[in-house]
Specification:
Blueprint: E1 2-4, E2 13-15, E3 25-36, E4 42-50, H1 55-58, E5 66-70, E6 73-76, H2 85-88, E7 107-118, E8 128-136, E9 142-151, E10 159-167, E11 170-181, H3 183-192, H4 202-206, E12 219-232, E13 235-248, E14 257-263, E15 270-276, E16 279-280, H5 282-290, E17 295-307, E18 310-321, E19 329-331, E20 343-354, E21 360-369, H6 426-429, E22 436-439, E23 442-443, E24 452-454, E25 469-474, E26 476-478, E27 484-486, E28 495-500, E29 506-510, E30 524-529, H7 531-537, E31 546-549
Parallel strand pairs: 4-9
Antiparallel strand pairs: 1-7, 2-7, 3-4, 5-6, 6-13, 7-11, 8-9, 8-12, 10-11, 12-13, 14-15, 15-16, 15-19, 17-18, 17-20, 20-21, 22-23, 22-24, 25-30, 26-27, 28-29, 28-31
């Protein structure tokens, strides 16, 4: 089962009364199956499905649906029979009273569900599978929003998948897709509607208690195996066994996960990688695996070349990733028809797979280019406006008079004095690989209490958040008697906090000049990294930082 939440900000949606494409609803009250409501009363169950004329849009209609008549049996709702079962039985709502009358033309947002089948499997060991989806309403009962029968053999109208799913060793090449109203959207619209308009919302009109649905409660999916098919007063009855239940969150719990494929700035190739909150996915996977999950990534890149008006798949690249989640992966496509293709598309499918519960999250990214020749079988050379000329350079010594030096005299030596500005003697700051422990103004290895730790070069770490960050550093050296000595930094206006981006360029952040915040005479220097820069720093693969004197006086953040 593949559950696809409504795409935002432009979800698939249809009005119920008027518009280019409308989708209506039937409400079937089922007195065969009773439920206990929040007041401990037995009430009929409710089943919701779309009108027969909407079958090509949602496939969630009576054509594919069944109704439950006992705890373990279902009967077809096929509307094409001479007398549909709901018109035959007085325990169900007749067809003339099924359709919900909407006072206003509301718009309904839809999620999609795909039921996939393993290649070559036609339910040969079963008479069918029944899958239902239920929402819990405020009356504490469950309303069935889909109850689909997947039939044995080839009777079902499946959609063949041009890019079959691969889960483990299984390949799923067919699916049956339906659309159901988004429970989150229903809840949000019911909660935000004024009291005088709540009775016109979909949540009010479809529920069993006219109070909407419990906010935030997951959806419930049930899978039934049809063990045998029998006759029930001339109708097909399916004796079934409940084999699995599943809770589904009402909104995507992995909405922060994404997939990126882009042209690299470091060379003539592409970078592709999974993201978490627009950064690398490393922290997400390591955290999830530390609490009992076991996630890894699979990547698939399809190359589609446009020949005329048709897109032809010329290559499919697949790989599995089990480490190195903090860096991009590299890929170079080869456009086979570079001379004749109009354009090409790279379709990148990233799958986040959990081996513990066999669940997976799929994200798709694409890259389009109208320059196929750049990525042909040969790397395109750079065309120069003029042909380069070969320059010959000669080093020639011209004739000059000889230099005569008296035998008793040597050339007068010339003293060259070179002045070098030294900021801090690094050896004096940290000559060891252990931190400097400062306790009661004395350097010691074990003072017996929590000391201040002056970290040596290469040992200090800072935390960078996606927001504004302030840092203050104080520089010490160990005096001759072992006591810590503050280093007078003098003028800190040229001090920079530096990082290296993914291309090796330096990003400088100047120090703060306010001595009320950091006094350089006391060895103090402070920096501020605003949120526009910290977001970039979090994406750098090089985790080091440097405090330098000098460098570019302007801040570099390109």
């Amino acid at each position: 089962m593949e559950y696809m939440y409504a795409d935002q900000p432009n979800p698939e949606s249809y009005p119920v009364n008027t518009g280019g494409t409308t989708v209506g609803f039937n409400k079937l009250v089922n007195n065969f199956i009773k439920q206990t409501d929040s007041s401990a009363n037995l009430v009929p169950s409710v089943q919701i499905y779309n009108l027969d004329g909407d079958d090509l849009i949602t496939r969630n209609t009576a054509n594919n649906s069944v109704v439950q008549i006992t705890p373990n049996s279902f009967v077809t709702l096929d509307p094409n029979l001479i007398v549909p079962f709901n018109d035959f039985s007085n325990q169900l709502t007749p067809t003339s009273q099924l359709e919900i009358n909407f006072p206003g033309n509301i718009v309904v947002v839809y999620d999609s569900i795909k039921y996939h089948l393993v290649a070559g499997y036609n339910l040969s060991n079963l008479d069918g599978v029944i899958i239902n989806l239920k929402y819990q309403d405020a009356n504490n009962t469950f309303v069935t929003f889909s109850q689909i029968l997947i039939q044995k053999g080839t009777q079902q109208d499946y959609t063949f998948n041009p890019t079959p799913l691969k889960v483990g060793s299984n390949i799923y090449d067919r699916y049956f897709e339906i659309k159901v109203p988004s429970l989150k959207d229903m809840n949000d619209k019911y909660q935000s509607a004024p009291s005088s308009f709540k009775d016109e919302t979909l949540a009010y009109l479809t529920g069993s208690g006219d109070k909407g649905y419990i906010y935030g409660v997951p959806m419930r999916l049930e899978v039934w195996y049809v063990r045998n098919k029998t006759d029930y007063n001339g109708y097909e009855k399916y004796d079934s066994e409940l084999v699995s239940t599943l809770s589904i969150e009402i909104e995507d719990p992995f909405s922060n996960i994404g997939a990126v494929i882009k042209e690299s700035e470091a060379g003539q190739f592409f970078e592709y990688f999974a993201t978490d909150n627009e950064g690398f996915i490393e922290d997400f996977i390591y955290f999830q695996n530390s609490i009992g999950n076991n996630y890894y990534l699979t990547h698939q890149i399809e190359t589609l070349e446009q020949i005329g008006e048709a897109f032809i798949t010329t290559n499919t690249f697949q790989t599995i990733q089990t480490n190195g989640y903090d860096a991009p992966n590299y890929y170079r496509p080869i456009i086979r028809n570079a001379s004749s293709a109009v354009s090409f598309v790279l379709r990148y499918t990233m799958t986040l797979y959990n081996t513990v519960d066999k669940s997976s999250v799929v994200r798709i990214g694409t890259y389009s280019s109208a320059n196929p020749s750049q990525w042909g079988t040969n790397i395109q050379p750079i065309a120069l406006s003029t042909f380069p000329q070969v320059q010959k350079i000669y080093n020639r010594i011209y004739s000059q008079s000889a230099l005569n030096v008296s035998g008793n005299q040597g050339p007068t030596p010339k003293t060259i004095i070179k002045n070098t500005n030294i900021f801090i003697d690094q050896q004096a700051v940290s000559a060891t690989t252990v931190p400097l422990l400062i306790y009661n103004d004395t350097v010691t290895e074990n003072p017996g209490a929590v000391p201040t730790v002056a970290q040596p070069s290469g040992k200090m770490s800072i935390d960078v958040t996606p927001f504004d960050n302030f840092y203050k550093f104080k520089f010490y050296k160990s005096g001759a008697d072992g006591s810590p000595v503050v280093i007078d930094l003098g003028d800190t206006s040229k001090f920079k906090l530096a990082f290296l981006d993914n291309t090796g360029k330096k990003l400088y952040i100047p120090s703060l000049s306010d001595k009320n915040i950091a006094n350089p005479a006391n060895g103090e220097v402070a920096f501020r990294i605003d949120d526009s820069i910290s977001t970039k720093v979090l994406r750098f693969r090089d985790k080091r930082f440097f405090i330098t004197d000098g460098g570019d006086n302007s801040q570099k953040n390109d």
